[in-house]
Amino acid sequence: GQQVMQIPQYQHVQEGEDFTTYCNSSTTLSNIQWYKQRPGGHPVFLIQLVKSGEVKKQKRLTFQFGEAKKNSSLHITATQTTDVGTYFCAGPSGYGGSQGNLIFGKGTKLSVKP
Amino acid sequence: EAQVTQNPRYLITVTGKKLTVTCSQNMNHEYMSWYRQDPGLGLRQIYYSMNVEVTDKGDVPEGYKVSRKEKRNFPLILESPSPNQTSLYFCASSLRQGSYEQYFGPGTRLTVT
After folding, report:
1. Which of B45, B90, B103 minimises the CB distance to A101?
2. Are B104 and A105 an interchain contact pair (Cβ–Cβ within 8 Å)?
3. Which of A4, A58, A69, B86 has its CA 20 to 30 A from that of B76?
4. Minimal CA–CA distance to B44: which of A101, A31, A50, A71?
5. Going residue by residue through chain B (113 aa), what tens digit of pLDDT does each one get?
6. What does the alpha-carbon distance between residue B85 and residue A87 come to, in Å, rounded to a whole number?
7. CB burial readout A89-113, b (16+ within 10 A) else e
8. Do B43 and A43 touch (CB under 8 A)?
9. From the centroid of its chain, how far is CA B23?
């Protein structure tokens, strides 16, 4: 079945360093979503990318959707301790008018050393 | 305030004792879903519902039941809990199935001894 894979599983960085997590789908996605889960919290929606090659920014976070719409990345510039948490990507199964449930990657857990 | 609520937040129970975890949303969403989260396994979908009286199995439905009698509520039922159901459970809702932002509840930490 359709799979969404994320790497790395864990990332430890020094505060101020950059961080990137990558998401790869086994099939073409109609869109991709990113969520953040703080320690002890629940996943919270960050953003959705829809267009091939789309790049969106939220302050220090840059999200990119691949040209083939099968991969995506989240890059954080100059990490801060508030960035700590697990970042998930998710894409709907199916495509176009027959989209199904969201399939989540296993997440990348980011820790930041002050 | 738009939100998804779950109760209880924490539960310790014994094997075989039936339990229900409630989930409610106030956003008039059609789609609701239950996930379990285990270390290294990410979020795995248990059951989902596309609307009232419409439910279907997710990836890991064994040992669970759900119902959707009202649009706002989507309880998760464990008829005979076992230790392998010890996990963190999240309820989520979205406007519809597919490409819509999902709103997650705060989670229920379940321990079955």
Report:
1. B45
2. no
3. A4
4. A101
5. 889 999 999 999 999 999 999 999 999 999 999 999 999 899 999 999 999 999 999 999 999 999 999 999 999 999 999 999 999 999 999 998 887 899 999 999 999 99
6. 24
7. bbbbbbbeeebebbbbbbbbbbebe
8. yes
9. 7
A106 at the B interface (CB within 8 A)? yes
Q: Are A2 and A57 in contact (CB under 8 A)?
A: no
Inspect the interface and report whether the beta carbons of B90 and A107 lie closer than 8 Å. Answer: no
CB pairs under 8 A between A and B: 56
Q: How far is B73 from chain A (nearest CA, A)?
A: 19
Q: Is B104 on the interface with A (CB under 8 A)?
A: yes
Q: Tokens standing for A41?
A: 């919290």
